[in-house]
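Incident log, support desk, overnight shift.

02:14 A customer reports that sequence design results differ from what the structure should imply. Their input is reproduced verbatim below. On-call engineer (initials T.W.) acknowledged and began investigating.
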C-alpha cells in the first residue's frame, strides 16, 4: 500500500511541477508578445492614438501610408499581446486600448529597475569610499613629501 501511495504522490508532484513550469512559460510567452508588439513604431503610434479613445480600423489607418490589411496585421499583433480589444459591429471594427495588457511588461521593468537601482547605489557607495581613500593617500603622500 505504501508504494502505491508513494507513486501517486510522485505523479501528483510531477504534474504540479509541470503545471507550474507551463504557467511560467505562458507568462514568458505573454511578456514576449507584449514586448514584440511594442517593438514596432507603427504599433506604438496606434497605442498612442487609442490612449485618446476608441477608434475604427479606418481611423487608425488614416495617418499611415499603408493598406488597411497591413494595419489589420499590426492590430492583430497588438490584440494577441492583450493590448487592445476589438468590437465588431457589422463590418465596422471598433478598437479600444486594453491597458491591463501592459501590466506584465510594467512589472518586469519595475523588477529590473529596482535591481539596477540597488546595484548602482552600491557602486556609488563603493566609488565614494574609493575616492575618499584615494584622497587620503594623496594627502599623506603630499605630507611626507614636505
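02:41 Re-run completed on a clean worker. Output:
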Amino acid at each position: 500500500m505504501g508504494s502505491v501511495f508513494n507513486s501517486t504522490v510522485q505523479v501528483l508532484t510531477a504534474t504540479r511541477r509541470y503545471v507550474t513550469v507551463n504557467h511560467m512559460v505562458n507568462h514568458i510567452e505573454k511578456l514576449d508578445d507584449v514586448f514584440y508588439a511594442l517593438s514596432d513604431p507603427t504599433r506604438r503610434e496606434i497605442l498612442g492614438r487609442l490612449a485618446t479613445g476608441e477608434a475604427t480600423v479606418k481611423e487608425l489607418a488614416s495617418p499611415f501610408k499603408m493598406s488597411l490589411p497591413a494595419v489589420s496585421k499590426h492590430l492583430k499583433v497588438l490584440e494577441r499581446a492583450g493590448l487592445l480589444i476589438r468590437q465588431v459591429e457589422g463590418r465596422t471594427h471598433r478598437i479600444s486600448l486594453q491597458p491591463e495588457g501592459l501590466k506584465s511588461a510594467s512589472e518586469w521593468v519595475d523588477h529590473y529597475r529596482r535591481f539596477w537601482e540597488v546595484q548602482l547605489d552600491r557602486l556609488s557607495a563603493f566609488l565614494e569610499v574609493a575616492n575618499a581613500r584615494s584622497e587620503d593617500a594623496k594627502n599623506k603622500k603630499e605630507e611626507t613629501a614636505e
